[in-house]
Amino acid sequence: MVLSIRNHIVIPDDEIEISAIRAQGAGGQNVNKVSSAVHLRFDIKASSLPDDYKQGLLGYSDRRISRDGVIIIKAQRFRTQEKNRQDAKQRLIDLVLAATLKRKTRKATRPTRSSQSKRMDKKTKRGRTKTLRGRVDIE
């Protein structure tokens, strides 16, 4: 089996390490017996992803990506192990796509002259109002 990221980019299942762990939180006695949560580990450097995808992932700032370049996803949203396994794989796909998304560069803009003068006029008027609130000396 392979995990399809886009139509020509796939991750083989042997590059994804999935292990079952016990889920945290409430659940009664069942939570202590059944390992329904899933730990997914994916080594970016050792993967067969294209180099631009690898660089995008390694440069992406996310707490799920370790310093060693390993993605660690813990899925425990569902009660069954199979659904958590699918959820972890989907979250891996979403992370890869988010890391390789090309963002538009921000163009620096300047405020117009009229907006600057309006802002200064408002500041002056506000300051004058506050000055008039001061103590009045009666002699």
Give a brief outline of the structure:
The protein is of the alpha+beta class and 139 residues long. It is built from four helices and five strands.
Question: What features would you describe in this structure?
Answer:
- The protein is of the alpha+beta class and 139 residues long.
- The chain has one domain (2-99): Double Stranded RNA Binding Domain (2-Layer Sandwich), CATH 3.30.160.20.
- The protein has 4 helices and 5 strands; from the N terminus they run βββαβαβαα.
- The strands form 2 sheets. The protein has a 3-stranded antiparallel sheet with strand order 3-4-5, covered by helices on one side. A two-stranded antiparallel sheet has the order 1-2.
- The N and C termini lie far apart (93 Å).
- The mean pLDDT is 85.
Q: How many E strands?
A: 5
Q: Report the β-strand fraction as a percent range.
A: 15-25%
**How are strands sequenced across the largest beta sheet?**
3-4-5
Largest sheet: 3 strands, antiparallel
Mean pLDDT level = 85
Structural class: alpha+beta
Low-confidence stretches: none
From the spread of the alpha carbons, the general shape counts as: elongated
Order of helices and strands: EEEHEHEHH
Tally of helical segments: 4
How far the N terminus sits from the C terminus, by CA atoms, comes to: 93 Å
Domain tally: 1
Q: Helix share of residues? A: 25-40%
